[in-house]
Structure formats: structure tokens, C-alpha cells
Amino acid sequence: MIIMRSPQEIAEKWLRVTMGRVVDYENGVKNPKKSWEKETASAAARFSAAATDPSTITHYNTGIRKAGDAKWQANTIQKGIKNWETSIGTNEGNYAESITKYVDVISTLKLPEKYTPGDPRNLARMKAICEALRAAKDA
């Protein structure tokens, strides 16, 4: 069994830590590791698999190209920075609620045996967690 903190404890820490991350948020938007435009556009195939209307993809990509990185950055900084603390501060309960079933799944999961570090049989532990979380999400 995996020992987990309660969803409320996790949410309280999330709030405490995240409230002070506005500078990190702004720096991440100003200096992304990858282009928002390119990464978002490359997600079109995954988006397509989830969408049934082919015209949706055209509209999706058109919007991405129209916005581009510069507009995305400007809007995100202009809107996101000033609303950071308010948005984060009012969402602790939502965060706790949204993670509760996953915390419950992980904390009650019986994992396969753990082997020495680097042993590929340890991947079965990760697979068990992934499968259990996917089942919970799909439920």
C-alpha cells in the first residue's frame, strides 16, 4: 500500500506553495522551453482523435496560427499575473476535490514487489499505478 497524505493536506500544500509562484509563472510564459504555438499545433492529431468533426481541426489550427506565441504570451502575462493569487487562492477546495479519487486509488493500491534499483521488473509497479489511475479516470 502507498501511504498518501489526505487530499485536503495536499491541497493546503498546493495552495501554500503555489501562491508564491507568480514570478515562476511569469518567467515560464516569457521564456518557455518550447514554443506554445508549435507544441499546441502538434497536438492537433491527438485532438483529432478526440474530436469527430473534421472542421474542428481546421478551426483549432487556424486559431493557433492567428494567435501565435506573441499574442499568447502577452495575454497570458496581462491576464494571468494580476489574477494569479486570486485564482489560486479560490481554488484550494476545487483542487482537493479534483484529486480525491486519485489519492484514494493510489493510497489503497497494492503494488507488485519492489526489486533493486534499475531492475526492469520495477516497471510493473509504475504500470500498476498507471492502469489504476486510468481506470479511475475512465470510471
Write the layout of secondary structure elements.
Elements: H1 7-19, H2 22-30, H3 36-42, H4 44-50, H5 54-89, H6 92-108, H7 123-138
Report on this model:
With 139 residues, the chain is mostly helical. It has a domain at 7-91. 76% of the residues lie in helices and 0% in strands. It contains seven helices and no strands. It has helices at residues 7-19, 22-30, 36-42, 44-50, 54-89, 92-108, 123-138. It is extended, with a radius of gyration of 20 Å. The chain starts with 6 loop residues before the first helix and ends with a helix. The mean pLDDT is 89.
Task: Give the tags.
139 residues, mainly alpha, extended
Q: Strand content of the residues, in percent?
A: under 5%
Helical fraction equals over 70%
Radius of gyration: 20 Å
Overall spatial form? extended
Q: Provide a count of the helices.
A: 7
Could you give a short description of this structure?
This protein is mostly helical and 139 residues long. The protein has helices at 7-19, 22-30, 36-42, 44-50, 54-89, 92-108, 123-138. The protein is extended, with a radius of gyration of 20 Å.
